[in-house]
Amino acid sequence: MTDEATLVVIKPDAIKRGLAGRVLSRLEELRLEIIGAKVVRVGRELAEEHYKALRERPFFEELLELIQGNLHDTRYVLALVFWGPEAIARVRQATGSTHPEKADPLSLRGSLGRMTTTGVMENILHASADAIDAEREIKLWFTPQELLHNPFGSQHWESGVRRTVQR
Ligand code: IDP
Ligand code: MG
């Protein structure tokens, strides 16, 4: 099995509801290593860059507001990099599919996520979908210095967060 790195972002809806610890406990059961972790105040530019593939979707504006914490009055997220065998697929499986009501009931989204009565999708966390996304996203959210080891060999990069987040 190949060792991989994957990005997890515990979203403002989970922070607000006090679910970050439960998310971490479930992910710890996968026996992956945490090679990076930090609190991030997400600005609009980071939000747009992170979700740029969804620019044309009707929910894009709401999604930008959600990840910035503007819908939950909780303007920070926890960003983590997990490392280990088949990390990307295993974290995705534990996460469950996008819509909380369609997700496997035992997954994080299926058990902890919800659609609010006002129609906001609270799906708890982001998890990288595949190797291309994982590399792009980790390089956007973290610098090599912030990780215990560099998952991408000797390559160096400048984190997008430093450029885009208003601290
Ligand atoms: P994923 O997070 O399961 O990979 P994507 O399709 O990449 O799902 O969408 C990214 C995020 O956009 C979702 O996690 C969710 O927060 C939001 N999103 C996706 N589809 C909808 C929708 O139909 N309505 C509202 N928000 C959505
Ligand atoms: Mg996705």
Task: Give the topology, please.
Blueprint: E1 3-10, H1 12-16, H2 20-28, E2 33-40, H3 44-50, H4 60-68, E3 77-85, H5 87-95, H6 108-112, E4 114-115, E5 121-122, E6 125-127, H7 131-141, H8 160-164
Antiparallel strand pairs: 1-3, 1-6, 2-3, 4-5
The structure holds inosine-5'-diphosphate (IDP) and magnesium ion (MG).
CATH architectural arrangement: 2-Layer Sandwich
CATH class, named: Alpha Beta
Q: Major sheet: order of its strands?
A: 2-3-1-6
Computed over alpha carbons, the radius of gyration is: 15 Å
Query: What composes the largest sheet?
Result: 4 strands, antiparallel
Mean pLDDT: 95
Uncertain stretches of 5 or more adjacent residues: none
Name the CATH homologous superfamily: Nucleoside diphosphate kinase-like domain
Shape: globular
Strand content: 15-25%
Number of helices: 8
Small-molecule binders here are: inosine-5'-diphosphate, magnesium ion
- Briefly note the CATH topology name: Alpha-Beta Plaits
Measured distance between first and last alpha carbons: 39 Å
Report helical residue fraction. 25-40%
By secondary-structure content and strand pairing, the structural class works out as alpha+beta
Q: Compute the number of structural domains.
A: 1
The total beta strand count reads 6
* H-E order: EHHEHHEHHEEEHH
Describe this structure in words.
It contains eight helices and six strands; from the N terminus they run E-H-H-E-H-H-E-H-H-E-E-E-H-H. The chain is α+β, with helices and mostly antiparallel strands and 167 residues long. It has a single domain (3-145), classed as Nucleoside diphosphate kinase-like domain (Alpha-Beta Plaits, 2-Layer Sandwich), CATH 3.30.70.141. It has a four-stranded antiparallel sheet with strand order 2-3-1-6, sandwiched between helices. Strands 4-5 form a two-stranded antiparallel ribbon. The model has no long low-confidence stretch (mean pLDDT 95).
